[in-house]
Amino acid sequence: MKEELLVVGGGIVGLSCAYEAAKRGGRKVTIVDRGDFGGQASGAAAGMLAPYTENSEQPDPFFRLCLDSLRLYPEWAEEIERLSGISVELTHTGSIQVALHEADMLPLRTRQRWQNEWGARAEWLDAADLRRLEPGLSSAAAGGLYCPEESHVYAPKLVKALEAACRRLGVRCVGNAGDTVDLMLDGGRVRLVTETGSRFEADRVIICAGAWTGAFERWFGFAVPVNPIRGQICAYHSPIGEVRQMVFTSQAYWVGKRNGTLVCGASEDVAGFDTSVTERGIARLTRWSGRVFPALADRSPVHRWAGLRPATLDGWPLLGPVPGAPQAVVAAGHYRNGILLAPVTAKRICDVLDGTLPAAELAPFAPDRFAASARTQR
How far is the first Cα of the chain from the last one, in angstroms, to the nearest whole number? Predict the structure, then answer.
């Protein structure tokens, strides 16, 4: 008799976990989402795979998790494309972190030193080097850090490819089920009920509910501080190759896609679960676009959108079993790095389910670590 596994949440993390579990065999997998698959942070993401740029302080456990995931990506993306027949547009452009002022240079130089010890192969660029690599950059750019190891994917296609791959592997995919209204974890079986009246039973459950994960704390019995952060993004019509690398500043980033658009993001604010786009949020992006790439100053975005990023208090995800309910595992709270962390999250979570990875290995990301911290303070 196959073990039944229920995955709650159909974003990039949930789809990746369902895919990994089904690929390993031995389980009957169902994935359920409150809305459309990939309908929130996943489908709205710029798809950057940038562990060096996103983690600038030190080689802590989160940086190492991100780096492990980057190294899994080429083979993982290839097998998903082969199974689904959909290209995820994994593009090895490298990245440039641009220093607009001399004061920005020292932190970048410091980062270069320790990250090169971890395989970044980062190179310092002076102003002339910058404009050789990115001719469209403003003359105000004083220098920059080039990292050839970073890449990006086209997030909407990756979500579609993962869903298709899951279906090909026999995963039951249930969308538009509404919010969870009841979750029973006190018996041998998991029982879940949604607001549409749908009922699911399984032996194990993985909670991958993104920005909605906080709602599960009433069943877990401890605080799960995952908050929605609205990320607003826009895109310009742009000839392929106009911006050659992923370009980052302290204020925004720009990523050229194969469909002839240049994605600029992200303006972040706290707006609850509101995914509307604001003039103020997009104006900040267009203002910086014109400053960094003068050719964009007279261009208007052709597309604007927003998604909800699931943020924890420390910016690290929640990964691992629910204390007191060993049949429940959490994989949520990935904030800005859900696309990057998808393959390593799926691998580690399924290793826990298979009993090949001790839960203690994921201690820095324990789902109850904030509750433990609160108890210590008291």
Answer: 47
